[in-house]
Specification:
This protein is of the alpha+beta class. About 25% of the residues lie in helices and about 35% in strands.
């Protein structure tokens, strides 16, 4: 169970003016969003959870960067026992910003996810 989040603003989502909790696949979507926004090892609680995109900052080999980003996303998300697989990656690049789409296969069903990473 987790608090609902507005994925565009990063703030708590409200229902009737109050925060509310979500379960199942909706809670897992919140966890995925938080995980991809949290650098690993920056905070005391993020030693095992989060992403390591900063390892790729300054990369100019964009084909290698795409493979590395896919690996880092899988590595960050597949620690959850509720996530079976992360696959179906697609990439678009605007300068140093990568727009990444992928499918998250979970015990609750599959969902599409997107994230942006600046290198």
């Amino acid at each position: 169970m987790d608090w609902a989040i507005n994925f565009e603003t990063g703030e708590l989502d409200l229902k009737n003016g109050r925060p509310y909790q979500v379960e199942g696949i909706e809670a897992l979507k919140v966890w995925v969003w938080k995980t991809l926004k949290t650098p690993r090892n920056v905070y005391e609680y993020s030693a095992d959870i989060g992403q390591e995109f900063d390892e790729l900052i300054g990369t100019t080999d964009y084909d290698l960067a795409e493979d590395s980003l896919a690996f880092l996303i899988q590595d960050a998300l597949e620690v959850s026992p509720y996530i079976l697989e992360v696959d179906g990656f697609s990439f678009a690049r605007r300068g140093s910003i990568f727009e990444i789409g992928f499918t998250v296969n979970t015990v609750y069903g599959d969902f599409e996810e997107e994230t942006e990473v600046e290198l």
